[in-house]
């Protein structure tokens, strides 16, 4: 059965449409959805079977996957990460919501969810109402990993119709939030003595100073 296509206007998010997406996630579904950067594949982080499905879509084992989590805001970070130093917290407060993924030290809750011995976890709070509202209504983070294109020139699929064609037989729903970006988030590793940019993407750290 083909995936459901759910159109949501990012400038006027409809609560009933968000509720439909959340219902799919609560039932163990996997979705594709827009962010402030590229489209992502995700599921409820507390559903082990759904996490394993996302891993299979990426061609990796769940215990080896390096997924990030999408949060609504910074208030629930302490449930999944070790305490942050003041410098890192201030930086994240400036940068988020925004096109960054921050790598932080994970606490003991994360291994239970991902069924592995992860010591680090990626945190995303996108500057986009749709994924943040999904997470807020769901009540916990969702797994996120970028939608890649098989085209050698175009790395990320941006057209929601193309995204749907690519994933309609692989996921339970595709959230159409309009055209996506083709530049991913900037990944910042905060686990060492100094910040390290692992991947330069849309977010510009120097603009935060």
From TrEMBL:
Cross-referenced PROSITE patterns: YRDC
Gene3D superfamilies: DHBP synthase (3.90.870.10)
Ranges where the YrdC-like domain occurs: 15-203
Any one Gene Ontology molecular-function term assigned to this protein's record: double-stranded RNA binding
SUPFAM superfamilies (UniProt xref): YrdC/RibB
Protein name, entry field: Threonylcarbamoyl-AMP synthase
Organism field: Salibacter halophilus
């Amino acid at each position: 059965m083909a995936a459901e296509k759910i159109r949501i206007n990012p400038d006027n998010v409809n609560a009933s449409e968000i509720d439909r997406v959340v219902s799919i996630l609560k039932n163990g579904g996997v979705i594709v959805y827009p962010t402030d950067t590229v489209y992502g594949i995700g599921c409820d982080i507390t559903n082990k079977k759904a996490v394993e499905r996302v891993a299979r879509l990426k061609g990796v084992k769940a215990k080896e996957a390096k997924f990030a989590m999408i949060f609504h805001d910074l208030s629930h970070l302490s449930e999944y990460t070790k305490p942050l130093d003041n410098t890192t917290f201030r930086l994240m407060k400036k940068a988020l919501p925004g096109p960054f993924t921050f790598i932080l030290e994970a606490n003991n809750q994360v291994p239970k969810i991902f069924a592995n011995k992860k010591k680090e976890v990626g945190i995303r709070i996108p500057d986009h109402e749709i994924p943040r509202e999904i997470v807020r209504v769901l009540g916990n983070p969702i797994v996120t990993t970028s939608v890649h294109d098989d085209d050698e020139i175009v790395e990320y699929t941006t057209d929601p119709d193309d995204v749907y064609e690519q994933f309609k037989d692989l996921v339970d729903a595709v959230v159409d939030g309009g055209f996506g970006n083709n530049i991913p988030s900037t990944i910042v590793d905060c686990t060492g003595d100094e910040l390290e940019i692992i991947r330069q993407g849309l977010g510009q750290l120097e603009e935060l100073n």
